[in-house]
Amino acid sequence: MEEQGDCILTFSSYEEYVKSKITPADLFYIEDEELVFDIFSLGLQSRGVLSCEDFNSTYQKKKKESLKKAEERKADVEQYDINSLTDHTMNFFYAINCHLHFCEENKICSILFIRYVNKNQSEISSYIDVNSEKVRKKINQKKYIYASKNDLAYFNWHNNYSCTNNSENFEMVVNKQVGLLFKYTRGGKYFILNPVRRETKIRLSDNISEGRASVGLSPGEGEKMISLCDGVERVELRDENYLQCILYALRV
């Protein structure tokens, strides 16, 4: 009965269902079509034919399940509101999923900052690209996210080790004037995560690469001024797994 339930909604009536079960061989041996229909309507388990009562109960059950799934799919689409990106009452997993959702729709780019004490009692902090396979995998498994030396920026405050890495979505830049810069690769926007005054600008020549002033610039390009984006939104989440947990979003 359960195997048939998956396709039972394709029939508009019990009569249509029964007729689909009657074969030419049945009509050959029992020439009366109405009699064949009456026999089948009693339910033939050997042929996998449901009785009228079983058909109706299974039909109603599957219809309710189908409507429930449709509502769940609708809820999945509507459950995230872009205006709730800075809602500090969101729990960790909902917040990450919300940011991931709008990253995948190319409406924002997002960075997660975490600070915590690891099992060696070292304080660790990290900046992580939210729109990454690392984050998706952890969130799908309902697991918390912790730092890696492959993150955008990694700091171990116990031994003063730090490193930075580019990702698919961001380039990391160290600037003499403002410190750590993030460049969104798709739009070429530069921004920092601390609040900035409107129209704050930096010089390309102040960017540092591998401990040296940026190289490979055309004559005069080093004096080029770049405006920093000032629309970074910030929400701090409260979670016992972290000393500090902040999500940053820039609408693109």
Automatic annotation (TrEMBL):
Report the domain of life of the source organism: Eukaryota
Gene Ontology cellular component? cytoplasm; nucleus
Signal peptide coordinates: none
Localization: Cytoplasm; Nucleus
Key words, A-Z: Cytoplasm, Nucleus
Chief subcellular location equals cytoplasm
A Pfam family assignment? DUF4464
* Function noted in UniProt: May be involved in spermatogenesis.
**Annotated protein name in UniProt:** Cilia- and flagella-associated protein 299
| Species for this entry | Plasmodium cynomolgi (strain B)
Organism classification: Eukaryota, Sar, Alveolata, Apicomplexa, Aconoidasida
